[in-house]
Amino acid sequence: MQCPVHNQLRSSMLEFLRQSLEADAVKRGEQMLAKLRAAQLRNQTFWLFYASASFTCFCIILSARVAALKSPAHTTAITAIGLGLAAILTAITLHLVHDHAFLYRVSTWYAVSTTRLRNHTKQDYLTIYRWATWLLALLPSLAAIFILLLDSSHIVNAGSPEHTAYVDTLKQLMTLATAVLATQVALFNFMFGQLLGRYSTTITREITTHPTVRLLQGFTIFMLVGLYFCFLWGFPDGLPRTTMFFVVALLSCLVLTVLVANRGIQADAAMRYAGWHIGNKVARTLLNPITKPTPFWKVMMYFGLDWRNPERIVVTVPPARPAEVAIKMVAGIFNAAHRALRDNEHEMFVESMDALIRVADSYATGRSKYYGTSDAFFSYLDDHLSVLLVATSKAPNQYLITNVVNTTGTIGRIALRLGGPVDKEKIEYPHGHPLFVHWFGLLMEGFDLSHTLMRSTAASEALEQMCLLTNAAILAGYGDQVRITVLPGIQKIHRICLLTMDAYHSSLAGQCLIKLMKIWLFAIVQPAKIAAVASDHFCETVQEMVLLQQAIPRQPNFELKDPASVLTVKLAEDNFTLQDICGCILAWRFEDDWQKRFATDKVVEIIQLLKTLTLNAKSDWAGVKSYTEAIYEISFLILKGLPDGLLQQSGNRSRHHQDDETPQEVLEQHIGDVTRELIEAWYGPKRDWYDCEHALFSIVGLASVAFKATGRAHAKTIALAIIERYSEMLDETSTNRGNTPDDHWDYLQLCAAWARDLLGEVALADKLVSDVAHGRPFYSGFHSGHSTAFGYPQVELGFAFFLPVPRYLQVSRSDKELFNRWQAMAVEPGMLHDTYERVWAIRGPLSAEIRSRRAAKKKQSSGDPSSSS
What are the angstrom distances between the C-alpha of 552 and each of 224, 457, 499, 618? Predict the structure, then answer.
């Protein structure tokens, strides 16, 4: 009997498969694109070296040839030296261009350098013009000054003939410098003030004091003052020979002034620079606290000369001036945001939000070095972002509120840095952060204002930012906030979505569960004490949310965001399931007994959650199938054997608790009890369940194989308990003369095969064989139990029974190999054929007797004259 190829496609999962294939194609495409870009960069590096070496060799040979022509006596030596240098350079180049590691290093350095340059020019959009000013204006002027220092022999006094001859040139240069200065005043002060001042005077002040603007204006003023000085008091005698340098410098300054003015009036780029520059300015006001004076400052303190800011010495009270400066600066940014909102200028609004983030990040970097979490600046941000949320919710452009929600979440994560870092390994009990409640509440306000907007993704963004903010709090050691603030908040949002149960809010309800699962798994992977507190009450919350959602009629949804899919089906790499959470719990590094008890209890809670959701009367058959498959996959994690760290007992426990059950036995017993209850529910006539029996009886098969492979007696106990209970249910139905579907006998025959060959219970197996042989009905024209499946169950798409591959478990290669061996043991052809032969050894004579009776009855009825008449 051949085990079929596992094909578990079904119509309800086609959309999931399509999305999975698309996501996989995108991921592979991104990987291929990265490889193509790296290869292209290496090729560019190769040809750059090759072309540079070729040009250099050409220049060497040409120079050698020219030198040889000028020195005929040394022609041979010069030519030989030139050819030798060219040959050496060629050899070095050929060696380098074929060294792929060297090309990779060079290309990587080039990519990193260009990225840094691009990021710098993006932040400071006038930096290119500053470099151009140094090259085209200051460098010629410095060259002219250097020539004057070397070439001048005396000073030409005013009124002398030389001075009189050069006065007209000086006047023209002064006129040109004056014109350039007037142009700069008109463009920089007036134009910037008019065009950028309508947003905020803060932006205007930052741009007019930009280093490029000050460099151009300072250079022009310096040139004008210098020229007037030369006109009134004289100049070095070498000045006339450097006139062209100064003309080039002034004309370059004029051209750069026009270019800077054209570039400077771009409001979005100006706001980007303003946010970056204000952030640096705020960071400079927050100096490091003085915790321990150095020997130098001890001496200064002895003489009373330590005049540093006293606020830096008191670490518990942060300096007041940085917060005041930051508030003053961001007030202008908020003004610009409101003006951009009123004028519907999306790009300016986005840059204003980014500027707020930059300032908050720069401020928090220095502020986090002081104790305390109460801060005037972040309170100011919280209040004004709330006002901005209300304003954007009423704006015609509904997408703007999404940017405000994103900014709120980002600044909320930055605010968690206040109060200093927390050592998560030494923490005794996770506490909360006072600012977390405010920022999480602001995100909830953003959801309330945006979930009714039909042309905005702000509601989804609010859920995403809540998830990120909570994970940031957990990562920082503030795990107590989860059960107090996060779980009730997301549960409240979930109820709001269910009250307006259209397709959009149905999707939002699914996203609530998705974010909750992400937070749950992130809490589980933290250090033990934080994980124990942060992951508390998740099972109860998820159960309440799912039961409430299942009680509402299901809306058409092609995004697979129903509760069953969210909790048990891995729709994407960044979506996590209950199976993932169980896997993470079992992968802990167990050091104390309380961690082992906690892990065991958590896995039991998850299994109990799946059982409750399965037995819920409102669960549809697809959800029941997903839940039972999840229980099956978790059963494999347990039955394959728990980690040694979880099973190893401490010395005190092994002495005083010798009769206690091990975590392995506790979890196996719970899996067995849940499976038995679900099989009883599936067997009941009131349940409209389909396809779930495959996963349920696969758990029985796993337990049987686990006993055969490992010898664990407890695995045998739970398998026998389920098989015996299933046999009792069939006996009760036969006693009550009830109707038993044919597939129920198929699974009983499969249990008989496992009982004999895997569990070693011959008496029970003989009893089951007899029950199948006598209880399975005979149909006219079709020998029931004698088909191509040999009387064993047929699962999806008509395939013979097999142990389903755990599709949504992250298991190692060794576990995959173990499952393949167990799968082969569960459907071993010889074992199945032996039980089939035993059934038909009893059933064959019964079938022959039934056929003979039917033939005799038919013959008797055909020979009866009254019957024929």
Answer: 81, 24, 10, 8
Confidence (pLDDT) at 795: 82
**Under a CB-based contact definition with an 8 Å cutoff, are residues 459 and 508 in contact?**
yes
State the Cα–Cα distance between residues 301 and 549, nearest whole angstrom.
69
- Regarding pTM above 0.90, the answer is no
Q: Quote the CA–CA distance of 45 and 104 in Å, as a whole number.
A: 9
pLDDT value at 790 more than 90: no
CB-based burial of residue 798 (10 Å sphere; 0-12 exposed, 13-18 middle, 19+ buried)?
exposed
Question: For the residues 315-342, what does the mean pLDDT come to?
Answer: 88
Q: Distance from CA of residue 834 to its chain's centroid?
A: 53
198-to-134, 191, 201, 268, 559 alpha-carbon distances in Å: 32, 11, 8, 13, 45
Report the alpha-carbon distance of residue 362 to residue 278 in Å, rounded: 9
Contacts of 571 by beta carbon, 8 Å cutoff, 6+ apart: 16, 19, 20, 560, 565
CA–CA dist 521, 289 (Å, integer): 38
- Give per-residue pLDDT as tens, 98-118: 777 887 888 888 888 888 888
Question: With pLDDT > 70 as the criterion, what percentage of the chain qualifies?
Answer: 91
> Is the alpha carbon torsion for 105, 106, 111, 112 positive or negative?
positive
Would you say residue 653 has pLDDT above 80? no
Q: What is the pLDDT of residues 179-213, one digit of tens each?
A: 999 988 888 877 777 666 777 787 888 888 889 99
Whether 774 and 780 have beta carbons less than 8 Å apart is answered as: no
pLDDT score for 135: 93
Q: Which residue has the tokens 């240069």?
A: 173
User: Does the pLDDT value for residue 335 go beyond 80?
Assistant: yes
SS3 155: strand
- Cα separation of the two ends of the chain: 52
Residue-level pLDDT at 611: 93
Rounded Cα distance, 262 and 513, in Å: 50
Cα–Cα distance, 439 to 411 (Å, whole number):
8
Per-residue pLDDT tens for 561-571? 888 889 998 87
Residue 633 backbone class (left: φ over 0; alpha: ψ -120 to 50; beta: rest)? alpha
Q: In 3-state terms, the chain is what percent helix, strand and coil (to 5)?
A: 75, 0, 25
CA dihedral 610, 615, 621, 624 (to 10 degrees): 10
Residue 303, Cβ density class (10 Å: 0-12 exposed, 13-18 middle, ≥19 buried): exposed
Query: CB within 8 A of 566, min separation 6: which ones?
Result: 510, 513, 514, 517, 575
Question: Would you state the structure tokens that stand for residue 436, as one six-digit string?
Answer: 């977390």
Q: H or E segment at 664?
A: helix 663-683
The answer for 317, left when phi > 0, alpha when psi is -120 to 50, beta otherwise, is beta
- Nearest Cα to Cα of residue 8 among 847, 604, 797, 813: 797
pLDDT of 869 strictly over 60: no
Share of the chain above pLDDT 90, in %: 37
- The SS3 call for residue 791 is coil
Is 432:481 a contact under the CB 8 Å cutoff? yes
Assess contact for 810 and 764: CB atoms under 8 A: no
pLDDT at residue 657 greater than cutoff 60: no
Tell me the C-alpha distance between 560 and 808, whole Å: 15
